[in-house]
Amino acid sequence: MDFDNILDKVIDFATVYGIKVIGAILIWIIGSWFIKKIMKGMKKVMSKRDYDESLQKFLLNLTSWILKILLIITLLGTLGVPTTSFAAVIAAAGLAIGLALQGSLANFAGGVLIMIFKPIKIGDLIEAQGELGVVKEIEIFTTKLTGLSNREIIIPNGALSNGNIINYTTEGTRRVDLTFGVGYDSDIKKTKDVLMNVLKSHPLVLKNPEPTVNVSALADSSVNFAVRPWCKGEDYWTVYFDVTEQTKEALDAAGIEIPYPHQVEIKKQG
Fold it and tell me: In DSSP terms, which residues pair with 166 in a beta bridge?
């Protein structure tokens, strides 16, 4: 094989593949530039809409990888590499991974929905999935609560986003529902005045909405009063326990009986 023949083959190869290589390089440069622009635009939009920081990072990384994979497939096609089988392998691998991580993907989707629609936020007192606690951390796959007895509660985001959520913090105030029973011989008006004085004298009970005291039931051994003070969400348990204790003291001081079961001893006659 002489030198001229080799030179001709090199020229033919460079003519055929040189243009493809140059085109691939241009596609890589332009594609990378577009990916950076898209990432920058996404970050700007999510920052304006106050997306959670962890969600921003995850979505940006996920989008970046997807766009880069598409760019690589485009480059391979430009160089003449068959991409049909390559895409089929990626699709099959994606399906297998998706089936294996079905539960995790559901939790991920739930986490994204929670972060986007924000039914809860850190610091909220919520009741969900049979648990009551303060939201400590919202992650991609799980949400962590601190229970009232300082327990850490971890709830999968899939279940959390698809179930009922009671948020006690959103409105800013809470109503404390208490019931007290007094004897049938007690004066109703006097009892209501005593109960109302307890509520109005407590510094954490709100004046607006105004607390209420009403007869709620005529029970077997007591007249029951529904006592309904309002307070800030974070003061709920303080008001609950204080009002309960102070009501007992106030009723005792006013001579109003709180009925309780009595055991009657029957003596046998000999």
Answer: 127
CA R_g for the chain? 35
pTM of the model: 0.59
Instruction: Sketch out the chain's domains with CATH numbers.
Output: 3-100 (1.10.287.1260), 120-167 (2.30.30.60), 173-253 (3.30.70.100)
Q: Using CA atoms, how far apart are residues 71 and 186, in angstroms rounded to an integer?
A: 83
Q: pLDDT, tens digit, for every residue of 43-98?
A: 888 888 777 666 677 677 778 888 888 888 888 777 776 666 666 666 666 656 55
Long-range Cβ pairs for the range 237-245 (8 Å, 24+) = 237/148, 238/204, 239/176, 239/202, 239/204, 239/205, 240/176, 240/178, 242/202, 242/204, 243/176, 243/178, 243/198, 243/199, 243/202, 243/205, 244/178
Confidence of residue 214 (pLDDT cuts 50, 70, 90): very high
Stretch 256-267: mean pLDDT, rounded?
A: 69
The DSSP letter of residue 230 is: E
